[in-house]
Amino acid sequence: MRFQHHIFVCENVRPEDDPKGCCSAKGSAAIRQAMKQEIKQRGLRHIVRANQSGCLDACEFGPSVVVYPEGIWYGGVTPEDVPEIMESHIINGKPVERLRIQKYKDEG
CA-CA to 108 of 20 to 30 Å: which in 22, 56, 70, 74? Predict the structure, then answer.
């Protein structure tokens, strides 16, 4: 297996008047950039990959992030949350409960 974890950050763009909104307008590009920086700083490039994603269909919870293979969904993520996600979830295997999307909690 090439990577132990894949982190998908929704960067979907919708028109401003779309009632669902979009993760891109909520700052998801900065989240993915922070993920990539954190991965590099911690020397984790061989085990985790942060990927740009199209719509994850969790717009109301955005910015949305999902971590595989666990299938853990995070919502309302900010760049400031990234170090905690890396430390707790990726390194120590403990999802960050305060950021988990409750609707998807039993699926992960």
Answer: 22
